[in-house]
Amino acid sequence: MERATPPPSPTPARPARHRRRRGAVGLLSALGLLAGAVAAFTAAEPATAATLGSNWYASAPYLMPEDNSPPDAAAVMDATGQKAFQLAFILAQGNSCSPAWGGTSSIDSDTTMPAVIKKIRDKGGDVSVSVGGYGGTKLGQTCGTPEATAAGYQKVITKYGLKAIDFDLEEPEYENTAAIHNEIGAARILQQNNPGLYVSITTAGTNAGTGWFGTQMLNEAKSQGFTPNNYSIMPFDGGFNGAAAQTDALVKFNQILQTTFGWTEANAYAHEGVSLMNGRTDAAEYFRQADFQTVLDFATAHKLARYTYWSVNRDRQCPGTVDPGLSGSCSSVAQNDWDFTKFTVKFAGATPPTTQPPTSNPPTSNPPGTCTDPAWSATTTYTAGNKVSYNSHKYHAKWWTLNENPASSGQWGPWADDGPC
């Protein structure tokens, strides 16, 4: 039964994804304006897209070429065998209906992305573009109608010669019924007007599969008769503890898809995807290589339609302290460069290279060891200064708290993360 009003506690936010998107865009935009006169005459359009199977768009990890110390995509391709990347994010420029990278760098004057796309395509790869993400103003909020929203996104498809696009429908947009109507309608129109276009819909994941707003988004798609290549959830930042919690959420999301669309279990899995986060998440959850392998095994066994992650910028070990805290440019876990990207390559059906350049930042500390602080208990009342351990990490209470999971506390919650044991 549909609920008339949303629940009082929507899916936890992802503030760090928002910060990552915006961090360096302003500087790069300024540099772009400085070089504009020269670029106008020298910048070439992206090379023609390679003919890739949909398996590569289904495995394309997210990459931010304008923020978070972007890696060289060509070097990542050489080291891993990955052929496609999900470039993020397109937003509305100000309160207009014009698409811009990060909401600030208009695609009309953009010279950064064509160069990145050309380099990837020159190596036989291709890109998809992700619209939306956490925070910011989306075209669905400003364009007024599905048709106007689609026209805005069509400019992106045309400029970059895209064969794939991702709608990342998160807060605050997916709490706006009119905006989601416009976004889903735009996706439907683009699918009709661009034959063969690969369309993915990405939204928040919860321990129940997805939340109230995610379910309403599915109902909107059903009402419009729209079926994308996949619906993907992000099972992180919601109190997830390891891969088992993530695969359980995928099972429950499968049941939601069955109920909503009348699909069989197998058909629901064929339209279902997962978008992970490598290393430390915004909510101080930790997902390591073994977790990615477990979810990959689940995805291949159940024939999921998509397996990707956020983000390639973070697919390297942090310099110095392995876990300095949340970062947009490193994972905060022990790893070699591009370890996590190799899992998306495997999902695409390819074998990653067996040799790999040594990591430029060798481990300086061991993985988390045995915790000596008492284990956190949901039934214990804690006051300021009390120390606990949870999921191989140490925490201390900032104020009185009861039954609030330390790993899902976040920046504004009652627990402070004191690092691995």
From TrEMBL:
Superkingdom to which the source organism belongs: Bacteria
Leader sequence segment: 1-49
SUPFAM superfamilies given in the database record: (Trans)glycosidases (SSF51445), Carbohydrate binding domain (SSF51055)
SMART domains: ChtBD3
Keywords: Hydrolase, Signal
PANTHER family: BIFUNCTIONAL CHITINASE/LYSOZYME-RELATED, GH18 DOMAIN-CONTAINING PROTEIN-RELATED
Identification of the protein by name: Chitinase
Species in which this protein is naturally found: Kitasatospora terrestris
